[in-house]
Amino acid sequence: MKFIRRALLALSVAGAIAAALRVKGKGGVPPQQGGWRDIASPK
Amino acid sequence: MIVVAGTGLVGTHAADQLRRRGHEVRSVSHNTVNEVDPVLTEVVLLAHAGDHVRTARRFLEAGCHVVSVSDDTKDVLALLDLHGEALAAGRTLIVGAACSPGLSGLLVSYLGAKFESFDEVHIAVHGTGGPECARQHHDVLSGTALGWHEDDWLRRPAGSGRELCWFPEPIGSRDCYRGDLADPLLVKHAFPHVARISARTSATRRDRLTARLPMLTPPRAGGDMGALRIEVRGVREGQRAVEVAGTAHPMAQIAGSVAASAAHELRRQAHFGTPIAPGVLALGDASLPNNDILDDIMQTGIRIQAFYGVH
């Protein structure tokens, strides 16, 4: 029982840390259209 | 003769590139670089782990041009402080000639030419070169990240400021975070007028959680696939505009090619009797032949791509 409680506590702490790390930050918006193309030599 | 100090992935690739261009190259390790006779050396390319400042000073004072691939913030600051020594010796020291910094400055110069004026530079980098570069990447997520924001240095905790950045394929989208990166210092050095500079590095949640611990898994000896994304914002035809360029190749290949091209150009210009201005320079600086260096890098097989479309 004690082991299960400790395991659950460890999992919830890890989950909370992961959630905080995941949520913090503004993320991003995928490019709406377009893509990457090779550029010509700058010379 | 060009001396390449460093026998890791970046140093080996740079030495190979220089030999292909017909230069006489001597590769030495970090431990034996001080045994090199500076009299016979025109250019020294420092591509070894650890600080470069002492070796750079020694070779500058002995009359050699120096190219450093260092991307450690403290080492880069110390190298920038060698400007007086470089001027007194009449020699050039190119600082941060790798991918980020290095290619980043060249791409800012390339993209900046598409504007009437530009005032924002945002850099994102993914991947690591050799094992030493991986250790450096591990450390950059645990310090203080520098950014330039409206006439002042902005200091934020490294590992903060998540942003999803799109790199050229096959890397694609990656979460990127502020890091203790040297790019803002060198972009500001090369483009003093820019009002906002940020630099981010890609990282996983595990990277961020373990940043303050010793590396849990040993870095891969063969290095990683790398990518660079440069976003420049400015004014064109009276309106705000954005230009994005980048590349995706093995990181050691990018860094080695940039370092080799910088060393090649230093030696080539000296031989043509049009030596590059003495002093400490960052790639992208107006006194460097940036388009020649970028063209030379592209000749080595590095594909530079621009993003076309709606961001």
Task: Examine the secondary-structure arrangement and name the CATH architecture of the largest domain in chain B.
Answer: 2-Layer Sandwich
The tally of strands of chain A reads: 1
Please report which band the strand proportion of chain A falls in: under 5%, 5-15%, 15-25%, 25-35%, 35-45% or over 45%.
Answer: 5-15%
Strand count, sense and barrel status of the largest sheet of chain A are:
none
Helix content of chain B: 25-40%
- CATH homologous superfamily assignment of the largest domain in chain B: Dihydrodipicolinate Reductase, domain 2
Shape of chain B: globular
How many extended strands of chain B?
A: 15
Tally of alpha and pi helices of chain B: 10
Find the structural class of chain B using helix and strand composition.
alpha/beta
Distance between the termini of chain B: 46 Å
Radius of gyration based on Cα positions of chain A: 22 Å
Oligomer: heterodimer
Order of helices and strands of chain B: EHEEHEHHEHEHEEEEHEHEEHEHE
Kindly describe this structure.
The complex is a heterodimer of chains A (43) and B (311). Chain A has 43 residues and is of the alpha+beta class. In chain A, 51% of the residues lie in helices and 14% in strands. Chain A is rod-shaped, with a radius of gyration of 22 Å. Chain B is an alpha/beta fold and 311 residues long. Chain B folds into 2 domains: 2-98 and 253-301, NAD(P)-binding Rossmann-like Domain (Rossmann fold, 3-Layer(aba) Sandwich), CATH 3.40.50.720; 103-251, Dihydrodipicolinate Reductase, domain 2 (2-Layer Sandwich). Helices cover 32% and strands 30% of the residues of chain B. Chain B has 10 helices and 15 strands. In chain B, α2 links the parallel β3 and β4 (65-68). In chain B, α1 (9-20) packs across α9 (251-271). Chain B is globular. The termini of chain B are far apart. Chains A and B meet through α1 and β1 of A and β9, β10, α8, α10 and β15 of B.
